[in-house]
Amino acid sequence: MTLLSHTLGMLRSSVMNALAYDLQEISASVVRMLSLVKEENQLAQKALIEADVIAAERCVHLDEQVDALMTELEQRILTIIARRQPAAKDLRFLGAIYRALADIERAGDYASHVAKAGASLAQDPPLKKYTDMNQIMKILTTMIEKTIHALADSSIEKAKEAHKMDKEIDDLYEQIQRELLTYMMEQPQTITIATKLLAVARNLERFGDHLENVNEHIVFWLTNERYEG
Rounded distance, CA 17 to CA 198, Å? Predict the structure, then answer.
């Protein structure tokens, strides 16, 4: 082996090691971002179900951290692509994560909207027990946990499991809609609060849709195929 070929081999190895490190850092940061959104969801749950105004405030603060982390990660990914020139699966990973960031950020936004609505609703007696909404938020927590495992463990199975759970949320959302519309028709005095609750339910349904999208991006990274369940 000539000195030149040895040197070039060392440089290629160094670049590959640097890229592997960068990819690990990106993955860890996205897991952190998902964990923050999970915490947001749990705080929003307390704000809505337990009328906890302090939890709502904490949720809004966490959402600011999620927004900042998304902006940072977008820039880091673009820098890695420019500097390391990744190929094949590594490039697919970065592209999939770049697209997933917006969905994760939007999921956090919806959690924040629910928390704010919970703080507002806390000022009046509840229309009913929010059993179905509470169940949706439990499902969202599990979806996020499975999404984290899918990303950290490169698990197609976990990503598909999380993706499938959005159907449960859609079914509960339709049930909530029917119930609230019945309240509004039979008890017109409930229209104002029922309308607010419909908006909350819609936010939760959209939250699930964005998590569904994240897992579609993960499956694409792992399989190079589009997945819609």
Answer: 51
Q: Could you tell me the pTM of the whole model?
A: 0.91
Question: In angstroms, rounded to a whole number, what is the distance separating the alpha carbons of residues 166 and 88?
Answer: 30
**Separation between Cα atoms, residue 38 and residue 142, nearest integer Å:** 9
Helix, strand or coil, per DSSP, at residue 187: coil
With contact defined as beta carbons under 8 Å apart, do 147 and 211 qualify? Answer: yes
pLDDT at 17: 85
Handedness of CA 220, 74, 109, 153 (dihedral sign): positive
Which structure tokens are listed for 73? 């990660």
- Mean pLDDT over each residue of the chain, to the nearest integer: 93
Q: Which amino acid is at 50?
A: E
Q: At what angle do helices 88-121 and 3-49 cross, to 10 degrees?
A: 20
Query: Where do we find the tokens 């420019």?
Result: 82
